[in-house]
């Protein structure tokens, strides 16, 4: 899977080209704020699942800020996995600086997570912009399911696939006078192949190649079910979680939270 390796290079390059100041306040927020880096709806779900005493993991943890934030809910142990070695190094350093000895970070492709982690986690979570890096969600959630303990839970908070139909500011098709227009196909299959940097981390520059994949809501739900997990809750929200707020509160589904639980068997 060449795209996995080229994404690794692109994410590590994005870290090396991060805009001055990116990440500088992460430590300060982790020290001084309660559950920074999560919105209120995610916080409600995290508390409802209950992390106290659990072994938890974040898949695609980037520089670890969200997992380190979740550690405030008192899990026994936390592990963050991400393919980019320099982000993982920063995460490890942040954990040490705030004294989270029970939180560690591992650099690897999620699909290659070592078998010693199978059955280990009571809770695994993905946050915004993570599952799009995987072409085959059946493979991804099969790995998630293997890593969960029986009755372990999965939480995904991400862009709603409906947002794939909307042009965002900066794109040619974007027209601020017509914000009620869906422009792109919901059922797009081709990946996005981009070389413009990673806008929330870097300035725009000619970057290494990022390849990510569109998935419909049914793609996501069916892959979770096929991996032997039951859907416990699916919530949809009319606010954006990172692209642009221009479509907020207009009746469009812009983000979602899915909670599921591992059943005793894989289907
Ligand atoms: C947009 S971030 C998601 C995390 C967090 N919400 C954030 O905004 O930083 C996507 C992360 O996925 C990681 N990633 C991409 N492909 C991966 C793979 N095959 N295995 C593990 N991590 C991967 C990237 O390195 C990046 O840190």
Structure write-up:
Residues 60-160 form the Methyltransferase domain. InterPro entries: Methyltranfer_dom, SAM-dependent_MTases_sf. One of its GO terms (molecular function) is methyltransferase activity. It comes from Sedimentibacter hydroxybenzoicus DSM 7310. Keywords: Methyltransferase, Transferase. A seven-stranded mixed sheet has the order 3-2-1-4-5-9-8, with helices on both faces. The chain has a two-stranded antiparallel ribbon with strand order 6-7. It has one domain (2-17, 53-262): Vaccinia Virus protein VP39 (Rossmann fold). The two termini are 25 Å apart. Helix 6 packs across helix 7 (217-226). Helix 4 links the parallel strand 1 (55-59) and strand 2. It has helices at residues 2-16, 26-32, 40-49, 65-70, 85-97, 137-147, 217-226, and strands spanning 55-59, 77-82, 103-107, 121-126, 148-159, 192-194, 210-212, 229-237, 255-262. The chain is globular. By secondary structure, the chain is of the alpha/beta class. Bound molecules: S-adenosylmethionine. S-adenosylmethionine (SAM) is lined by residues 4, 7, 11, 60, 62, 82-84, 87, 109-110, 127-130, 133.
């Amino acid at each position: 899977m060449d795209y996995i390796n080229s994404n690794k290079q692109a994410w590590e390059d994005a870290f090396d080209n991060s805009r001055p100041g990116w990440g500088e306040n992460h430590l300060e927020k982790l020290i001084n704020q309660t559950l920074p880096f999560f919105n209120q709806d995610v916080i409600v779900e995290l508390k409802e699942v209950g992390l106290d005493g659990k072994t938890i993991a974040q898949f695609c943890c980037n520089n670890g800020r969200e997992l380190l934030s979740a550690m405030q809910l008192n899990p026994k142990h936390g592990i963050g996995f991400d393919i980019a070695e320099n982000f993982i190094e920063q995460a490890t350093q942040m954990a040490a600086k705030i004294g989270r000895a029970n939180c560690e970070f591992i650099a690897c492709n999620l699909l290659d997570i070592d078998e010693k982690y199978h059955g280990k986690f009571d809770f695994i979570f993905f946050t915004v912009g993570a599952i799009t890096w995987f072409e085959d969600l059946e493979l991804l959630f099969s790995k998630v399911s293997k890593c969960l303990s029986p009755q372990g839970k999965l939480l995904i908070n991400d862009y709603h696939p409906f947002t794939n139909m909307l042009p965002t500011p900066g794109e040619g098709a974007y027209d601020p006078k017509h914000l009620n227009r869906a422009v792109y196909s919901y059922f797009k299959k081709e990946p996005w192949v981009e070389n413009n940097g990673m806008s929330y981390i870097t300035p725009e520059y000619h970057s290494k190649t990022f390849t990510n994949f569109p998935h419909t809501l049914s793609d996501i739900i069916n892959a979770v079910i096929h991996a032997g997990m039951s859907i416990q809750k699916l919530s949809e929200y009319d606010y954006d979680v990172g692209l642009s707020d221009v479509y907020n509160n207009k009746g469009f589904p812009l983000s979602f939270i899915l909670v599921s639980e591992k059943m005793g068997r894989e289907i």
